[in-house]
Amino acid sequence: MKKARMGKNEMDDLMAYDDKADDTDEGIGMCGWILTAISWLIVIVTLPFSLCVCFKVVQEYERAVIFRLGRLLQGGSKGPGIFFVLPCIESYQKVDLRTITLGVPPQEVLTKDSVTVSVDAVVYYRVSNATVSVANVENAHHSTRLLAQTSLRNILGTKNLHEILSDRESISLAMQTILDEATAAWGIKVERVEIKDARLPEQLQRAMAAEA
Question: Which residue among 19, 109, 160, 211 is buried most deeply as judged by most CB within 10 Å?
Fold first, then answer.
């Protein structure tokens, strides 16, 4: 049922990483199997104290991406709830699936009609695939932040001043489309983009006020 509710892209990513995990189990070698056996032996010998170390919990809005001997574990991310981690050979990374509000700092842009304007925006996004967001990019949130800044500058550079002031909705939609397509490979889903404010140079403001 869980897989049936996933989108096509998420299913494709999960199947791809399941295949990689299968290859991992086959390719850990004799040394890997020995270390795994030793780890299980430690767990059994130190029972019940080892259970305090092996059992982990992630919240409803979190997922855990587990690596065994540096490779992705079969089955994709774990959670929510309790999951099991073998000591010494397995590590995990928590991923927050809640929507994140990203404030894009003011970007000074030269418009198509050669006017300098400072524009800031807000981007709402979330992690749609925890495994991909950990394995495909070093820092998905930082990468999304930088991409949002460059995308805002690139889009505004193709607009005239009156378009920026009067047609913010189309700019927001264009920016959302660009970000969503670019961050899909990082397991990120951009839900909404809003242009907050467009500030004109003081000289231009005085000139417009004088004409009014």
Answer: 109
